[in-house]
Amino acid sequence: MASKIYTKTGDDGTTGLFGGARLSKDHIRIEAYGTVDELNSCIGWLTSSIHDADLINLLRNIQSRLFTIGSNLASQPGKDMITPDLKQEDIALLEKSIDEMQESLEPLKHFILPGGSQSVSAAHLARTVCRRAERRCVSLANSSEVDPSIILYLNRLSDFFFVVARWLAHKEGVEEIKWEPRIEK
């Protein structure tokens, strides 16, 4: 018989970290890795709306790195534990991908609204959730130790999703929706 998915240990509003400590479910640490998990789900949705095998493989690599980030954030601070780590080449891969996609794009001369197609919208949603994950990790870093490469990776990742959204629009032949500010005189 399979083990049960529910443990009832969180019924009191707390959750456990790797290492044994328990925190309130609204603690900034839980918010941080919970938002990273939400981002990972957004990426899963994005992958289901595209057909480019290379981009799907890259997105799956990113999802794996987000599990790395989540495991680090979900680990008890100060406890000597072995967790996966981010490497400089993970960030370099994002930067290389951004540069390659931008080669086929017109320079951005205006603000654009999220939307245009399902995949473009999904990429923009991933971008905004990524920015929130970054903010939560910065908040956590103000009160606890956070590997600086996590914040750097999330910052670069949100840029990546902005470019992915533009690249998908270009590839799909979808016109970017230009923001038209209303200026009353």
Characterize this entry briefly:
With 185 residues, the chain is mainly α. The chain is built from 5 helices and 4 strands; from the N terminus they run E-E-H-H-H-E-H-H-E.
Question: How is this structure best described in words?
Answer:
The termini are far apart. The model has no long low-confidence stretch (mean pLDDT 92). The chain has helices spanning 28-48, 53-73, 88-102, 118-141, 148-172; strands at 14-16, 22-24, 112-113, 177-178. The chain has 185 residues and is mainly α. It has a domain at 25-75 and 89-97 and 115-178: Hypothetical Protein Ta1238, Chain: A (Up-down Bundle). The chain is elongated, with a radius of gyration of 19 Å. Helix 3 packs parallel to helix 5. The strands form 2 sheets. Strands 1-2 form a two-stranded antiparallel sheet. It has a two-stranded antiparallel sheet with strand order 3-4. The longest helix has 25 residues, at 148-172. The protein is built from 5 helices and 4 strands, in the order E-E-H-H-H-E-H-H-E.
CATH homologous superfamily caption of the domain at 25-75 and 89-97 and 115-178: Cobalamin adenosyltransferase-like
Total beta strands: 4
Radius of gyration: 19 Å
Question: Stretches where pLDDT falls below 50 for ≥5 residues?
Answer: none
Order of helices and strands: EEHHHEHHE
**What's the helical proportion of residues?**
55-70%
How much of the sequence lies in strands comes to 5-15%
Distance between the termini: 71 Å
- Can you tell me the CATH topology of the domain at 25-75 and 89-97 and 115-178? Hypothetical Protein Ta1238, Chain: A
Largest sheet properties: 2 strands, antiparallel
